[in-house]
């Protein structure tokens, strides 16, 4: 079960981290477009 839990945590982080990174880039771009 420990392996499954670690795999689940790794999968969640593998999805969340890039998603947050893309959201930050999108927000920065959107704010730049709004200011311009």
Can you walk me through this structure?
The protein is mainly alpha-helical and 36 residues long. It contains 1 helix and no strands. It has one helix at 2-35. It is rod-shaped, with a radius of gyration of 16 Å. The protein starts with a helix and ends with a helix. The relative contact order is 0.10. The mean pLDDT is 90.
Total count of strands:
0
- Give the C-alpha Rg: 16 Å
Which whole number gives the mean pLDDT?
A: 90
Pick out the low-confidence regions: none
> What is the makeup of the main sheet?
none
Distance between the termini: 52 Å
Please work out how many helical segments DSSP would assign.
1
List keywords for this structure.
single chain, 36 residues, mainly alpha, 94% helix, rod-shaped, photosystem ii
Could you give a quick summary of the protein structure above?
By secondary structure, the protein is an all-alpha fold. The chain has one helix at residues 2-35.
């Amino acid at each position: 079960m420990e392996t499954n839990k670690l795999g689940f945590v790794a999968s969640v982080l593998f999805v969340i981290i890039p998603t947050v990174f893309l959201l930050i880039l999108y927000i920065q771009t959107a704010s730049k477009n709004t200011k311009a």
